[in-house]
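Chapter summary example.
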Amino acid sequence: MDVIETENFQSKKKVPFPKILPTIITISAFCFGMTAIRFALLGNWETSVMCILVSALLDSFDGRVARMLGQSSQFGAELDSLSDLVCFGVAPSIILFLRSVCVMEHAGWGICMFFSVCCALRLARFNVVQILNEPKPEWQKKYFSGIPAPAGATIALFPFILSFSTGNDYFLGEKIVSFCLLVSGALMISTIKSMSSKMIEMKNGLVSPELLVISLVVICLITELWLTLSVLISVYIAAIPYGAYKYSKTKKEEAPEFLQQVS
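The structure predicted for these 263 residues follows.
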C-alpha cells in the first residue's frame, strides 16, 4: 500500500500554470510578511512596513484571481488564512513591539498578543462563515462583519505611516501604538459592519469618474506614498461608522423582501 501511495504522489502529471497562480500569489504575500519581520529585526522600519503593505496588496488579488480562473479551492482558502495570520496578525505585532511598546515590557507584549489573537479569531470566524455558506441577499455580501485582517494590520501600523509622512517620531510613542493595536484588534473581532471593495461599481463608458479618481490616487501614491496612505487610512477609519449606518439602513429596507424570497 505504501508503495502504491508513493507512486501516486510522485506522478508526473503536469499542472497548468493558471491552476497554481492563486497559490503563488498567496505564498508571495506570505514571504513578504516574513521578510517584514526580518527587516524589523534589522531596524529597517520603513522597508518592514512596506513589506506588510505589499503583502496586503497581494492578498487582495489571490482570491479574485482564483475566482476569475475558476480555481477556488478549500486548500487555497486555508493557505490564505494561514498567510494572513502571519502577515497581518503576527508580523505587525512583532514590528510594533520591537520599535515601540517593548518599553512597556510585559504589558506591551500582552497588547501585541491581544492584537494577534483577535486576528486569529477573525480569520477563524471568516472561515466558518465561508464553509457554512448560508444564503445571503446580494446587498449583504458587500459588507464585512468587523474589519478584514489587512485593514486591521494597516490601522495598527498607522503610527508608523504617520511618522514616515511627517518625519515625527511622536506618533510612535507607546501610548499611541498601544491604542491603535487595541482598537484595530477590537474592530477585527467586532460585529460592526464595514464596507468591502464590492461597494465600488464602475460605470459603463470609456472614461468614468471612478477611473479618474483611481488614477489620481495612484499618481499620489507614486509621488507622496506615506502622505497619501495617511489620508487613505484616515478616510477608511472615518468610513467605518458610515458603513455601519448604511448597513443598518439598507437592512431595514431590504430584509423583509429577502425573508419573503427565502420562505
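To summarize the output: The two ends are 51 Å apart (CA to CA).
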